[in-house]
Amino acid sequence: GGDHTITYPILQAVAARHGPVGLVHVDAHTDTGDTALGEKIYHGTPFRRCVEEGLLDCGRVVQIGLRGSSYDPDPYKYCRDQGFRVVPAEECWRKSLVPLMGEVRKQMGDKPVYISFDIDGLDPAYAPGTGTPEIAGLTPAQALEIIRGCKGLNIVGCDLVEVAPMYDVSGNTALLGANLLFEMLCVLPRVKT
Length: 193
Hints:
The chain is α/β, with parallel strands linked by helices and 193 residues long.
């Protein structure tokens, strides 16, 4: 729950225990902005703050489902410059993400990994109840492939953020979010499914 700002203090605590962690980040947006309205901490900046504080093992960060409008002609440059693997939504259209997740598992290895899932990574046809919807996103089946594809990783934490009940008239976004969180619990180490 909450907006993506919550991931920043969580990763501070996780890194204090485990050192810099890998990150599987599903989102429509990179969340690596520097400021908004003069503020350095808001839902579009958590991963830049994490990079600055050395909380992430940048060679083990993958961002999946990125898309949408931007104020920058190359909105993924900062991420790539840090060593993140960037997987825009259009690279996911009309296909299974099982092969991608095989590559991600190799990239993550056996070191600690955190999963951060912004519900706006999914297309608003499936998850309209969010504050920053972007068209042409991932499907629920692809979301399951991503999460289930994390099974076997050394997952040390996870979150699902940006569900906004006031925009979720049907309740479908909350249902989808709850199911995705359940799936994340099922892929945690030592969980028998």
